[in-house]
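Contributing new records

If you add data, match the layout below exactly. Sequence lines come first and carry their own label; structure lines follow with theirs. Keep one chain per record. Anything else will be rejected by the validation script.
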Amino acid sequence: MIHILFELIRAILGLVQVVLIVYVVISWLYAFDVVSRRNQFVASVWEFTRRLSDPILRPLRRIIPPIAGVDLSVLILLLLLYLLQVEVTWWLERLLLGRGGFF
């Protein structure tokens, strides 16, 4: 049962990473006028990803200011999520599945 819980946590972390990457890519496409803001599908996907990611990014944006107009909070959050996913994998493999010791 705990194995399923850890796999669920890893899946959720992976989905959050995908949402953040889609959010960044669409914002770049908007910034460089590759995609029109009138495109209804892209606008709805961007709105969906923005509503999911902004509450997570808001505390980081208060701490990390934009550097030369580039928002680094998404990069920091992606790094933290990756490290958390690696940590969950370590706990899953070492402690629950018995594939190694603590050290």
